[in-house]
Structures are given as structure tokens and as C-alpha cells.
Design a protein that fits this description.
Distance between the termini: 71 Å
Number of strands: 18
CATH architecture of the largest domain: 3-Layer(aba) Sandwich
Structural class: alpha/beta
Strand content: 5-15%
Oligomer: single chain
Number of helices: 21
Helix content: 40-55%
Length: 505
């Protein structure tokens, strides 16, 4: 095992740490100033370099923070523990910003210091294995049996130009599979062109797919090649094919049938040599039954079907993916990669991930920016993972029908359910949020957005208004006029809202 390097001008500190670490079978090497450390690094090999660096901040001949910066330039993955007096807490903040693993306040408790160093060693060894694995990582990661089935299918299709339909929930990585199919196909040297048919307005989608001639419509000042032409000789990936307008489905079927199409406003047929890979999160068989998707197009696209598992079906991959995304995020932001504690990984693995792999990637971006220390603990995870309660859709069920009759007001009988027929103080106490409702709203919105829903505005507005009105009615014991006055809305407005929201059912 490589040694722990200790840097401190105080001989007693070096002596105490050396003896304590040797009792734990942890080899050490000591230095009195940063210059000695940098010289030793110049001469060190991979075998005798440091496993951990423990450095004081204030030393003759150099600062521990300057040493941290220089060491990180040479060994960006080396855990560095900064020792500091309580009066140097500002320096401790600077240490974290510089990528320190942790800081050790002086005077320190020796067993706690050893425990911290032991934790840094374990993290270092784990990260060494992880970095080796990630260095040779393929374009897709997954050890779960369901993902291995996907990899085997990609391998079997590697010499084929057959049309493929990829199904799976939003955020599960369908485009990654499409790119892998292209990369391992005879068309790998050709272009890969992707288009999300759900993200382009209907009146523009035809031009995006097939191109247009000059003067075909207002604003068409030049001829434009569409995605089919751009993908000639390669692969065209049609994402969210289930949302394609019905009339365009007919044109797509014709292209798949005879390989020819016309640009918008054009009169000359254009030949297309394109392999089509389609993807959807919808049940296309059901869409066919409902008349929203052409049956003949469905069979034309559904030659080979690959089902991509949701992340909750491959929880054993969460650890590998998390470390990979943390490395990616740090590289993109130009910062030191964060490490994640086993307890935090366990909590992540138990999360439902309605937004699948894309949501995990977003969480890792969030952690790279927001986690306060270099090691991510469970308390550092975002609200949607921790499950912090708040008055929102993810934390609370939809409000049930109002049930207990209260007094008659304005000639209308008003009822309030038992769970809201309590004082507002009791309601506040029962919720006891540990974050602001704005933060809760943001977290809940993220969960719904990542789930692929398209009614997030209506859903959250409905739940917000329902809770607000039922709480106001509970506060006024069912008196609508008073509730409306307190809410700052009109009597007719609250009456209409109660009816629209089904609160008087």
C-alpha cells in the first residue's frame, strides 16, 4: 500500500500521526514544508507516491493551500486533508473550493483523525478502481441482465441494416441505443441524424424531414435539404415517433416502402438511402387501436423491437452510472470530481427515478455544483431523492372530496374533509417542511417533467389551488366569502374554483 504523506512543521503533530497510523498498519512519510513535498513528487513513482496527503495550512516556506493547488494540478484524484486551527476556518472554506477531501481542525481528537484518514484511504482505493473502469468505459454502461440483453441485441444487429423500433420510458437512453446501433453497423462511416418528432411543430415537421424548394412557402428563400437527405448513406433516428401527425405518417410510410420522397413544393423525386431507427415511450399497439397511428406504418417500423429497461429495473447499475456522471459533470465544469459515500449511493439506488437515466445525470450535475464537500453524503442529495415533505404533488396525494358538513354560508352548504377540518396551526405542524415551498415546488416540477408528462402546468396548478382553497376553508370553517377575502379573490372566483376542482363533490 502507498504511504500517507504528512506535511507539518510541528514535529509533535507529525510524531503523533505517524504512530497512530502505524498502529493501523498504514505506512507514512513525513515532510516539514511544501517544498519538500513537491520535490518528492517529482521523484515519486506510481508505486511509492502518496495514497493520501495530510497537510497543515500555515508553515514556514509555503502555504498548505498553495500546496493543495499544485498537488491537484499533478494528481487531481489524490485526496488531500487540510489541518487547520479553528481561527483558520476561512482557510478551510478555501480548502474545499480548492478540492480538499476534508479538513481536520486543530487541536484534533486522534481517533477521529485516524478515522478520517482511513475513510479517505478507502475512498481513494475505491476511486482508483472506478477511474480504471471508467477509462475503458464503452459508450453505454450497464451490468444488469436487462441491459446485457440490449447489448447482445446490438451485437446481433451489428451487420444488419434492418429497421429497429426502440421502446422505453422517457429518459431511459433510447438515443444512446440508436447511436450504438449506428456505430456498430455497416453504415458507421455515414451520418447519424436525429430528430424528435414531438419537439417540432406540425407545420414545420414536414419540411424538417423532407426539405423544401425555394418559394415553397413564405420564408422559404432557398432550397433546404431535409433530414432524410442529410442522413443519406447513414442512419436517421426518429425519436418519439408515436407523436408524428397522421398525415405525415403516410409520407413516411411511402419513403420506407420505395425509398423516394419529394421536398415540400418539389416535383422531382429524391432517392433516399437511409436506415431508419424509431423510438417511442408510448404503447403503439394501443395508438393503432385508437386510430392515432397507422397500422401499416407500425408493422413497417416494428421489424426488430428493442425494449430498453427503466432505471428502476436495473438498480444494480445506479452506482456505476452515478460515478460515471459525476466524472463527466466535473470534466464539463472544470472542477474536481466529487466522491459519493456508500450510504448516499444506497439511498440513490432505492429512488424510483421517474425520469430514468436522464434524471440521474441531472442529479449528478446538481450534486457537482451544490454538494458542499468533496464527499457526497445522504444529507447532500437533492430533495426529490431525500423525500422531504412539502405541500406538493409528489409528497401528498390529491385532496379527497370534502366530507364533513359545516355551517351554511351564503345560502350554500359547504363541506370540509376531516383531514383539513383542523386549525391552520395544526396543519402547519403536521407538515413541518424542512425547505421552502418554492424549493419543494421546484423539486416536484422536476420529477413530473422528467417523467415525460405534458400536463405539468395544469397538474401542479390544480393541486396548488386545491390545497390553498381547502386550507382557507378550514381556517374560516367553511365560510366562502371570508375565505375568498383572505385569499384576495372574488366570491364568484372561489365558487367557480370549488366546482372546477371538484371540491364540493
Amino acid at each position: 500500500m502507498k504511504p500517507i504523506w504528512i506535511v507539518d512543521d510541528d514535529q509533535s503533530i507529525r510524531f503523533v500521526l505517524e504512530k497512530a497510523l502505524l498502529r493501523e498498519d498504514l505506512p507514512t512519510r513525513s515532510f516539514t514544508n511544501p517544498r519538500e513535498v513537491l520535490s518528492a513528487l517529482d521523484e515519486a513513482t506510481d508505486e511509492d507516491g502518496p495514497q493520501i496527503l495530510v497537510s497543515d495550512i500555515r508553515m514556514p516556506g509555503g502555504s498548505g493551500l498553495d500546496l493543495l493547488a499544485k498537488v491537484k494540478e499533478r494528481l487531481p484524484g489524490l485526496p488531500v486533508i487540510i489541518m487547520t486551527a479553528f481561527s483558520d476556518l476561512d482557510s478551510a472554506v478555501s480548502a474545499f473550493q480548492g478540492g480538499a477531501f476534508e479538513y481536520l481542525p486543530k487541536p484534533f481528537d486522534l481517533p477521529k483523525a485516524v478515522e478520517l484518514i482511513r475513510r479517505a484511504v478507502e475512498e481513494s482505493q475505491r476511486e482508483e478502481v472506478t477511474e480504471e473502469r471508467l477509462a475503458d468505459a464503452p459508450e453505454m454502461l450497464g451490468q444488469a441482465p436487462a441491459m446485457q440483453d440490449v447489448f447482445r441485441a446490438i451485437g446481433r444487429l451489428s451487420q444488419s441494416n434492418v429497421t429497429v423500433m426502440i421502446t422505453g420510458e422517457s429518459g431511459s437512453g433510447k438515443e444512446l441505443v440508436a447511436r450504438a446501433l449506428h456505430r456498430h453497423s455497416p453504415r458507421a462511416n455515414g451520418p447519424f441524424v436525429a430528430i424528435n418528432t414531438a419537439a417540432i411543430p406540425k407545420d414545420l415537421l414536414e419540411s424538417e424531414l423532407f426539405g423544401h424548394e425555394r418559394g415553397a412557402f413564405t420564408g422559404a428563400q432557398t432550397m433546404r435539404r431535409g433530414r432524410f437527405e442529410q442522413a443519406d448513406g447513414g442512419t436517421l433516428f426518429l425519436d418519439e415517433i408515436g407523436d408524428m401527425p397522421f398525415d405525415l405518417q403516410t409520407r413516411l410510410l411511402r419513403v420506407l416502402s420505395d425509398g423516394h420522397f419529394y421536398r415540400v413544393g418539389g416535383h422531382n423525386a429524391v432517392k433516399s438511402n437511409v436506415r431508419v431507427i424509431a423510438a417511442t415511450h408510448q404503447d403503439l399497439e394501443q395508438r393503432v387501436k385508437e386510430g392515432g397511428f397507422r397500422e401499416d406504418l407500425f408493422h413497417r417500423l416494428n421489424v426488430i423491437r428493442l425494449r430498453l429497461p427503466a432505471l428502476r429495473e436495473r438498480r444494480e447499475d445506479v452506482t456505476m452510472l452515478t460515478r460515471h456522471f459525476l466524472q463527466q459533470s466535473a470534466k464539463q465544469l472544470g472542477v474536481e470530481p466529487k466522491r459519493i459515500a456508500d450510504a448516499a449511493l444506497a439511498q440513490l439506488s432505492n429512488f424510483g427515478f421517474p425520469g430514468n437515466v436522464r434524471q440521474l445525470e441531472n442529479i449528478c450535475h446538481w450534486l457537482t455544483v451544490m454538494a458542499p464537500a468533496q464527499v457526497i453524503e445522504p444529507k447532500d442529495l437533492p430533495p426529490e431523492v431525500i423525500g422531504t415533505p412539502w405541500l406538493g404533488a409528489a409528497a401528498l396525494p390529491p385532496p379527497p372530496p370534502l366530507a364533513l358538513p359545516l355551517e351554511v354560508s351564503d345560502g350554500l352548504a359547504v363541506t370540509v374533509a376531516p383531514h383539513v377540518a383542523s386549525s391552520s396551526a395544526a396543519l402547519t405542524e403536521s407538515v413541518a417542511p424542512t425547505m421552502s415551498w418554492e424549493q419543494g415546488l421546484e423539486a416536484d416540477a422536476l420529477v413530473l417533467l422528467e417523467s415525460g408528462r405534458t400536463d405539468v402546468w395544469d397538474e401542479l396548478t390544480r393541486r396548488f389551488e386545491s390545497r390553498l382553497i381547502t386550507t382557507a376553508l378550514a381556517n374560516t370553517r367553511g365560510r366562502r366569502i371570508e375565505a375568498a377575502q383572505k385569499l384576495g379573490i372574488g366570491r364568484n372566483t372561489i365558487t367557480r374554483k370549488i366546482q372546477d376542482l371538484g371540491l364540493d363533490d
